[in-house]
Amino acid sequence: MAAELLRESYEIQGGNFDKAGEIASEIKVILRDLDIDAALVRRVVIVAFEAEMNVAMYARRATLTLILTDKDISLEVRDEGPGIPDIDLALQEGYSTASDEMRDMGFGFGMGLPNMKKNSDDFCIESEVGKGTLVFARIRLNSHG
Amino acid sequence: MVELKHGFKIDAAKCEGRMNCMRACPTHAIRVKNGKAHLISELCIDCGSCLQVCPSKAISATTISLAELDDFKFKVAVASPALFTQFGLNDTPAQVGRALLDLGFDAVWEYAVDIELNDRAITDCVKKWPGPFPLISDSCPVVVRLVQVAYPSMVDQLIPIEVPREIAGREVKRKYLRELELKPEEIAAIYITPCQAKSISILQPAEEGKSYLDGAIGISEIYNDILYRLRKDTPSLKDGAPDNTRELGELFHWGNPEGEFPSLSREHYLPLSGLTDIIKIFDDIEKGKLTNIEFLECHACLGGCVGGNLTVENLYVARSKDLHLKASMPQPTPEFEREVARRYAGEDFSMRGSIKPRSFARDVVDLRERVMRRKRAEEIQKALPLLNCGLCGAPSCKDHAEDVASGRAAISDCVFLSKSRIDQLRRIYKKGPRRVKR
Q1: Given pLDDT bands bounded at 50, 70 and 90, which one contains residue B363?
Q2: What pTM did the predictor assign?
Q3: Which residues, 6 or more positions from B75, have their beta carbon under 8 angstroms from its beta carbon?
Q4: In Å, how far is B197's CA from the nearest CA of chain A?
Q5: Are residues B269 and B395 in the same domain?
Q6: Is B287 on the interface with A (CB under 8 A)?
């Protein structure tokens, strides 16, 4: 069993695009100061950033939790939102339910969840339509040797 | 770990502990203890912000002086294009070149060729690069060091192409070894630099190789000597000195202030200057943004190298001179084109070593201990006033908390937590209790 070393939680507001990315930056600083391997930090930051963007685009609010153990770094994003009816479809690159307005803002190209999955060692989504979604991503500390 | 060198030194005798440097340092690399400034070497990126703000003139660039040039038999000046922006509108690059010869240089290098070569090599590299994007320019040593220290995950995005001044240094050696009967160590390629950071990139290149250049002289160091010669009549040349300054005049300015001028499509190329903006953009890159940009040209000094901290002229005046020079620049001559083509075919422009993230002394403790220190620092910070007054000797309360957590400072250095700290500071700064005027 991995020993938990650090746990930090952050609130994310839905619809708030100007703040999206701040948590990813904060997490970056924490992990960098802890001297975590740079390539791993980069992957965690991308996952966190995409999660923030998803919440900003679709959900009302969410809690993002960073958990560091001696074996891995995990991100858990629990949102209150519309939920995802077909998770497999949502994980396909290019699939998007973004509105034209979001696309005009330069978001919603259907790369968010696939990108999170690509950058994780373990990745899972649980969702209940009408209630919310839980995204869990784990990046192993030794996956870079 | 190899000891890190820096492009400047703090003279402890002159330092009055006024903390301007500590407050100006963008990477929080300076502490002021017992009234003297100290550098945390691993954090310093050689931006030179501290040099300009020191009220006691205790921080100076480790460039070389004109007198030290005499150590070499044959001295070649490789002048940053920024040099030519420092003088009057009517002072031509050719005249500045002649002044350099009169100052004791044996030749003035046609740096425009190397700048053009670097431009082509970068353009080629960008076209073939498989990713990740954007690539980041490596000609500003501060940018390279910033990536090593604060954006370690991006070191692979620094373009693996030799910088123009190194390309020049290498060819200087080749050419004059071929033409003159001298030993390699008798030929010196001296960079005329707009900043102290280029000097450290020569002393200790980030890619851990050895520089082809032999030293750097700050523009401010020779400004007066050149100006004097420009205001006199055309300086006479030393007997037998090769006068190639006519061509120099025409070609010197082929290229941007510090050279990188890739012929890349404008929408995929982003030039930026000033550390504050660079840090903002790097933060975005780290989040996976800006991948549509192929090449980022970054200069730590606002306005690029014409705004370097060893330049003399006001940035905006220099920039106007730069535009003036560019507007009156002729088309490149066939000889120039031939020389570029000849060298491009025969030289390798890839970077010799690789740039790695800078390793820190804190590597020695394991992750668990690092997390403990972080938690301790957070606890300590709660006791601090968060005013960032700096009187503890660290630039912010957060820095002080981290210093305390890792055993580098005592928490009682904070004046809010210890009355005796005020008395201690009074003794150090030799100021008595405030006298009230009536």
Answers
A1: low
A2: 0.83
A3: B69, B104, B105, B106, B107, B188, B190
A4: 25
A5: no
A6: yes
